[in-house]
Amino acid sequence: MNRAETLGFAKHLPIEKTLFLRGNAGIGKTSFVREFAKQTTRADPISLYPAEMEPTDAVGLPFIKDGRTHFAEPWWWPDESRPRVLFIEEIDRCLDQMFPVIMQLIENRTAGGRKLPHNCRVIAAGNGEKFQTRDLDQGLMRRLAVVDYKPTVEEWLVWAEREKIEPTLVSYIRATPDALDTPGQLVGKPNISIPCRATWADCSDWLRQALISGFSPDRDNLVQNLAPFVGTPAATGFAEWFAKGGRQLKIADVFAGTADPKQVSMLEATHVAGSVAGIFMSVGKESRVRALDFFTQVSQEAFASLFSQLPKTAMEDVRSHKKADELVREMMRLVK
Q: 298, 269 in Cβ contact below 8 A?
């Protein structure tokens, strides 16, 4: 099921039935659960990761009262005064000692003899047999509502724009949708970096920080620095697409005033900043003003990339440009 289909299915699933999302690593299972929890409970899910838990983490520490063993309420136990989603992550990587505990949560909705509140829904997630995971026998599977989760590329693009993923990366996936997910021959293969929805988002986070710090996004730099997230083949594919002009800003448009700063990403602006700075003083006054207009409207970070590469002779233009001068003063203040 895709994201929309799974959302509709989950909303009509009896709360006593555990939903099991099964899908490749990095496909967006956790993101789905967070969205579902926000929509249905207006709260983040309570996340448990049984692969790093001891049984007492789930059932609570034992204590004696009136000659009987009881279990203290664990930290994560839902408050019955409000609806919640309990999210059990990586269920098929569960340690042996935790497996009976997880079975109780799924089958009987209990832990340590304590029953989950009636308004708490349980969702589990896992990767399936192509990964280094444990088998889930039919005795467990029959207690789950199993959804093979695979959101569409279009659904990811909507999510990416909402989450402000680097626009050039979004444009690349829109132009080459097959690049979004892990190639079939690499699914489940250990010890490699893979392209997937989560790792492309990691690339966006890294680029955002690197561009602020003056990163030069030429082809080789992009391959070298994105490969640790998505692997060399995927990083090369993006870098070559970008180098060949994939939704790429043209220097002439910057000086002509025809480039729309609202439609340009920081990556694109930073990519041409050095070239714009290199010929800045060789163009007319009006063209220089248009270039400053453009970079100051893209973002403070894009302007900082241009400013750091401008010759000293351009400082008079910067000082006489109100917005550029304000940004320089702000940058100087932050440095101090």
A: yes
